[in-house]
Amino acid sequence: MHPIVSRLASLAAGTAAVCALTLGGVAGLSAQAHAQASVLLKHQSAKAVVETVDHDARELLLREANGHLITIEYGSSVRDLPHVNAGDKLSISFVETLGADLAQPGSPLPESTLTTARGYVHGHPRGVIASFRRERAKINSIDVPTHTISFTTDDDTSHVAVLRTKAMQDFLKTLKVGDVIDITRMESISYIILNDTVAPATPDAPVAPAAAADQTAPTAPTAPTPAPQAQ
After folding, report:
1. Is 224 within the bounds of a domain?
2. Is the whole model's pTM more than 0.70, yes or no?
3. How many structural domains are present in the chain?
4. Which domain holds residue 51?
5. Which phi and psi angles does 173 have, rounded to 5°?
6. Which is nearest to 115 in space by CA: 189, 55, 192?
7. Which UniProt keywords apply (predicted)?
8. Please, what is the Cα angle at 43 between 37 and 45, to 5 degrees?
């Protein structure tokens, strides 16, 4: 499992770590404010050109207009996405969110998942990869005035976090020592291939059989034979 670097704490091997969650705007509390909270950590867009495609390492190397290089890694489970080639021009969007829910007693451990999708935007092929990394944690201590919380994840690693967003601070006030929470970090990347235009298929459009087309086709008139001229 990936370290929960910016979920609720920064992971230090075998020791407690301290992290200030100062990123991003607030997506706001849901209708069940007492049970969960969600914040937007990152939402940015960029245009880039594909430098290289490494199918063995399953990596894409992209170059932004300012020369900045971006490496995108995708696992073997990522399939059915539009293929990109070196030189392709892409429009890319990154989204990252952080969510925390009060776990229901007796509920199964949360599972991390990966979702992919493809389609078209104005005829341009589009692909989406969304990773949902989930962990369960037990609250060890809460300090509401300083917005500080300590907890232990299901791998027995201790963490300390200082919460900086209002949504998480409000959520903190609803918790007590011993509560169990489920933490979800969603990271999504979507891309549109700008230099490729493909008309979406329309499988529902009726297609007339060839034989029927032959039967309904009008017959071309026969050219009249010219009358013989008198000698």
Report:
1. no
2. no
3. 1
4. 36-193
5. -65, -20
6. 189
7. Signal
8. 165
**Tokens encoding 219:** 């017959």
Q: Is residue 162 part of a domain?
A: yes
Q: How many residues does the chain have?
A: 231
Following CA atoms 114, 157, 4, 100 in sequence, which dihedral angle do they give, to the nearest 10 degrees?
80
CA distance 92 to 124: 13
* Phi (first) and psi of residue 52, to 5 degrees: -140, 155
The dihedral through the CA atoms of 138, 140, 141, 147 has a sign that is: negative
**How many C-beta neighbours within 10 Å does residue 225 have?**
6
- Rounded to a whole number of angstroms, the CA Rg of the chain reads 29
The pLDDT tens digits along the chain (231 residues) read 333 222 232 222 222 223 222 223 333 333 343 458 889 999 999 999 999 999 888 899 999 999 999 998 888 888 888 999 999 999 999 999 999 999 999 999 999 999 999 999 999 999 999 999 999 999 999 999 999 999 999 999 999 999 999 999 999 999 999 999 999 999 999 999 999 887 655 544 444 443 333 333 343 444 444 444 444
The answer to whether 164 and 98 have CB atoms below 8 angstroms apart is no
CA gap 103, 183 in Å, rounded: 9
Residue 166 lies in a domain: yes
